[in-house]
Amino acid sequence: MRQACIVPGCASNARTPAHIFPKNVNQRLLWLKKLKIENIEHVISLARCKLRVCYKYFSDDDYIYSAKCIAASNNIDSQQALISDCNLEFCPDIIALEPLQSAHENQDIRYATYIQEHDMNSNRSNEVMNSSIEVMNSNEVIEETLLSNAIMEHVQHTEGETRDKVTNFAYKRHERQDEVLATPNRRQQETNVRLFKRRTLLLDCRRQADLTPKAAKLYKIARNLFKRKRCIEAQNSSMRRILRTSKRLQSTNFIEQYEGLSKTQRILIQMQLRTAQQPSHIEQAHLSVCAERADQPFNTDYMFVVRRYTVDEKILAISLLQRSPKCYSLIQNLYNMPSSKTLKRLLQKVVLKPGLCKIIIRYLHEKAKKMHNKDKYCILMWDEIALTPHIQYDSKNDLITGFEDWGMRRTNKFADHVLVFMLRGLYSGWKMPISFGYCDSQTKTPQLLRCIKQIITAVNKTELEIVATVCDQGSSNVAAINTLLKDTARKLWKQGTEHRRAFEVDGKEIIPFFDPPHLIKGVRNNLLNKDLEINISRTSKSRQFASWKTIELAYKIDTNVNNFNRMLSKITEEHVVPDKIKKMRVKNATQIFSSTFSAYIGLFSHMQGHVDTRIGPLSIPKEEAVTMSKTLQFFNDLFDSVNGYTTKPEAPLRSVVKENSVHHEFWKDAIRRLKAMRYVHPVSKKPLTGSLCIQNWIKSIDAFQDLWTVLQEKDFKQFKPRYVNQDPLENFFGCIRSTGGRDINPTCTNFCGAYKVLLINNLSSRHSIGQNCENICDGHLLFSLKDFISEAHEDDAKFDEVEEDECAHIVESSSEEINENRCNLQDRSVYNILKNNLLIKASFKHCAACRATITDSAILQQILKRAETLVKKYITRFCFKSKIKSIIEREMEKQFDFTFIKCQQHDAQLKNAILSTIITTCLKKFCTAVNRCFNSKYTSTTKNPVLIFAQIKYRSRIKKKREPKSVQQNGDAVQK
After folding, report:
1. Same structural domain for residues 374 and 404?
2. What is the CA radius of gyration of the chain?
3. Is residue 739 part of a domain?
4. H or E element at residue 929
5. I need a labelling partner for 718 at 20 to 30 A (CA). Which of 95, 130, 282, 499 fits?
6. Could you tell me which residue, 770 or 626, shows the higher pLDDT?
7. Which tens digit of pLDDT belongs to each residue from 321-347?
8. In this prediction, what percent of the chain has a pLDDT beyond 90?
9. Helix crossing, 828-839 with 857-878: angle to 10°?
10. Which helix or strand (DSSP H or E) is residue 529 part of?
11. Do residues 716 and 374 touch, judged by C-beta distance below 8 A?
12. Is 896 exposed, middle or buried (0-12, 13-18, 19+ CB in 10 A)?
């Protein structure tokens, strides 16, 4: 424990600043004698380690200041002048009035001046130094004498006065002391010794290492303060700029209009206002060039100004770039927008590949924890979109895109379709694309079954529950649904349980639906070349048939009676004329099966005679008019009942389904009427088989009834039937096709990029011109990939092990030269590419042996000649595999001779660089050759099996395009 002052009668405590006794025994004894302490023999043993003397018994000049510490002087005379003459009871009160810090500062300046004077003038004579010391000692003696006299005089005349008067006298003591010190000394004038101020001693110091420890510490503090000052100045400048902008925008009219803008419009305006005073990189380069031409120094304050854009601003720019790159370049010249390279780097942070995406499943699980229980029930839908066959080497993932790829399985077939799976919420209508896969032609049933089971199992683990599926009437879809139903029926039969109209996956019952818009198109397409018998229970004489000829006749009457005031103003040739009908357009089918068209044809059932037109008298038979009018009205009501979305509809059936709504009775009657319908030959009136649209309508209506029963058990009071269709998926495809203005059949690479952009900017809900569905109730994206940009996980970017299947048309090519491959490595351009790529690397650039090997054209020609056969052989064999470059490198290392490399230091590096350059160049040329076959620009004979199959693929595509529309008779399965 720290001891208090040893002086008897001292009022100081342990917290008062004090000094320990000196190490020297003689000096220690001298201290004890001057302090008049008794029993010195007992105290002297403890004086060094424990006992102390407080600062009150030392004058200002008794301190010696150094860079690391402050020590009390061993000058016995100075201590004696203070200790022997002062009253021990009164002195502490007087000296305590003088701040210790002030005393330290004064002595610090004096001692530092002395030390620096001694260091800087080390060669000065001893006489000058001695005179300087005598001057200081004389000043100290004068100071101590005056202090002692002043204290004694004050004690004699002011004894008993208040403490305040003592305080005033203490300050007078300082004034008198300053006057004495200011008195010139004769010895000092003779020696002419100049005492420099402390701050002038470091003026010539230019290095931090030359500073004293205390000066270095002060320098560090000053430097930090200077940095802080610059930061504050920058913040002040930014705030002033914001205030100036705010003053310009403080108009009430602007604020009112700004609050009425959408979020996207606000982002665009804020981006322009924030970056208005920052020159772009193009402007900076232009200013620097102008300054160089004018031989004037360029202001470098603006050279390194970089515009910083937020993630929302970059996402907005990505959406514009996706629509039209040329338009974006024009906008970039007019406004402050991020560069295309910045946006591409942003997209590279999001890794999406075919198959079930890990990042989407992970975020689905996190999102499901925060969702309402009703919002967790969803449906699974899938559909296909046509692609353009095209392959491209992806150096980042080390594979060739354009082959059939399902994530966990790749084949060597060229992909010309992509299958996309999407989730849709039944409560709020949210949507989320979850998976996609490239396929050759239509997806095969076994592969579709694997995808359905894999996705349903993965989604059920995220706390979401799939209760239904929606697909079109494609043959693979129908076969997959029937297979799942049969497997479930077989399982339930073994358990002795009654089979329902649903299938089981992962222990969950799932209800299958067929897309209602596709069903209504199927009814129309079958009517083009068949007649529909609406009541098969009638006798042969009273049979009723609905024929497409009745619709064509009604259209002729409407267009030829009055062109300026038509009753069917929306009906055109694209709705009626079979050769001009756009069979993919749902609108062209629903506008035929409408109440307006039904009422127009119904008028002819009450008319007698004919109607005069410009092409002559026309009339519709009464029985045909009645039958067709009933048929059109029935399918209009049927489509409305499965397309409701509002509680206040225009028609009763086009509303949400409730417990007491009219849908339930109508669906029962609709099933009865549909079971009485069938398609017959238009001439012989014999029943026809092969059309499934009527049966699929019955299955879908039964599924709606079963779904309502399931949702009632989940506490649903109502649900919107429009949520059970493929409209969100069709809108998604429409946005993909609108990439770059118009891209009807994108390639695999383009599709993946557009797929990624749509998930980032959440534009999949936008309505595209000419798309095939309504977006009134399209729903919102459950979450976007915006969060993935800042939270990229390494596991998401890794590729799983892929099951790779080889097909019959790809065989190992012979070692015979294939000149038609357009992949000849002995071209002069390949030689230049190889040489230039190697010489730019620093490890080879400064090595004489490596440069000699690289620049020797004869050696390189031999390398290319020997590598040609091997590379073509392996590329033809492994072109569809992932990590193709690594596979070929391993195979070539086993069979290729690298003895031509003479540099032992860079042997491995140069070998890897040569192999990498040769294989990469060959892969790109191989892709170019295959793509030329897809575009019919390559017609010469070849023995390469890959190029042969590419030519076959091209001819099959051309054949489909040249087929007339009249050949497509069946309307159940419509190609995308």
Report:
1. yes
2. 47
3. yes
4. helix 907-934
5. 499
6. 626
7. 888 888 898 988 888 899 988 888 888
8. 29
9. 100
10. none
11. yes
12. middle
